[in-house]
Amino acid sequence: MTIWLRLKTQFPFYPGSKLPPVPSVTALVTATFLRQPSLKPKYNRPAQSKLYLLRWYVINVLKLLWRYGLNPLRMYMWVEDILDKFMRIYRYQTHDYTFSSNERLLHALGGNDFTQMLNQTIDESMQKAGFSHKFINEVVCPAMRVNYGQGVNINGFVGAVSLAGVESGLWAVKGGNKLVCTGLIYAAKAQLIPGTVQSIEPKIRPNPAGDTVKLYYVTYNSTSGSSADMYDIVVIAAPLNRKMSNITFRNFNPPIPEFSNPYHQTVATFVHGRLNASFFGYQDPSAFHFGAILTTENPKLFINSLGVMSPAEKTPSEEKLPLRSAVWKVFSREPLTKEQLNLLFSSYDSVKVKKWLAYPHYSPPEKCPPVILHDRIYYLNGIEWAASAMEMSAIAAKNAALLAYHQWYGNTDKIDQEDLHEKLKTEL
Ligand SMILES: CC(C)=CCC/C(C)=C/CC/C(C)=C/CSC[C@H](N)C(=O)O
């Protein structure tokens, strides 16, 4: 079963045709594998089913080799290489090092290679690295569309992150990712005031020792009405985009810049129902079992991807290929019409739609917004312009916390250090 799970993410659906004219090798073999009538009863006999899976795994690999040569293996190595460098950040942060800009952070991890990736598309990055057009369009592009709702014109760094996101071995949070936030608030023993920040303004106030200090006057709306408090340090962890968090910065000198770069709208539609096999080119619905349908670029296509929802910890029966009736997550640019839903699903009994500005609309060359907005005002979401993912937000948050701490105490030796990789090699 693992084999299928690994491969399911690499299945592009070719739009505009009943039967995919040239389905990706993965799609072809997955479908062939499922169509073996003799296979079904043998699911209950682990030894034989393993043999069958092995057989189809080998065939999958051969077909991939035939269609894409060594591109899939080279892509795996290319992403691993970037990931290895990226993971240096955990060591740097363990040693309390921090960076005053997102570009400096990236540069400290992967040098000019990383910062240059912000200035070119994933298409250009991969072409330069020798990947074929066919592979980029049929395998890389579907991964961009499912993860970022955009094609291979997104910047090279976020493209690599997106490819890391379709590899196996990812972790899911049982109960949902939102538990990471509540868990962190609990672990930090922070006092959470639920509300929406309206404005931030610098104020000069005397402290108990008789000196004057600069504080920040933050106004916010909460369930109990409008309130305000004074803070020494402010960390903004929301996209500073008028459509998303409309915070007014009053009386700042120099003024806080406006970040007008657009975020990209994604619509997630959750449908409990049965997929319409014939829409996907299958006359025999019993032969149609897919965990995910990814798509290549086509302006006529109204979905970016379609995938089955599965729990973080699957029971053995849930490990099997999904039945057609399940909860499906459809990603699209615009809300789906009733007609479109009726094309995708032969029947359904519940639909939930979530439309949101999920991530930046990438358009390299990319310049990330600053981490330091003003003396003791820090901004986390600028990192999203390098790549938007919860891992990136966690790294940006720790970076800002360390930066605020070191700037407060004047520990300049911990900020923007070059050659950390070499320096830390000798440390335990
Ligand atoms: C630099 C590289 C190759 C990886 C950095 C590590 C990282 C951030 C991995 C995240 C992989 C992942 C789960 C990507 C999914 S795409 C993001 C998703 N659409 C989202 O909105 O969070």
UniProtKB/TrEMBL annotation:
It comes from the Eukaryota. It catalyses: S-(2E,6E)-farnesyl-L-cysteine + O2 + H2O = (2E,6E)-farnesal + L-cysteine + H2O2; an S-polyprenyl-L-cysteine + O2 + H2O = a polyprenal + L-cysteine + H2O2; [(2E,6E,10E)-geranylgeranyl]-L-cysteine + O2 + H2O = (2E,6E,10E)-geranylgeranial + L-cysteine + H2O2. Its cofactor is FAD. The keyword Oxidoreductase applies. Pfam families: Prenylcys_lyase. Its EC number is 1.8.3.5. Keywords: FAD, Flavoprotein, Glycoprotein, Lysosome, Oxidoreductase. InterPro entries: Prenylcys_lyase (IPR010795), Prenylcysteine_Oxase1 (IPR017046). It is found in: Lysosome. Prenylcysteine oxidase that cleaves the thioether bond of prenyl-L-cysteines, such as farnesylcysteine and geranylgeranylcysteine. Only active against free prenylcysteines and not prenylcysteine residues within prenylated proteins or peptides. Involved in the final step in the degradation of prenylated proteins, by degrading prenylcysteines after the protein has been degraded. This is Prenylcysteine oxidase 1. It comes from Apteryx mantelli (North Island brown kiwi). The lineage of its organism: Eukaryota, Metazoa, Chordata, Craniata, Vertebrata. The gene is PCYOX1.
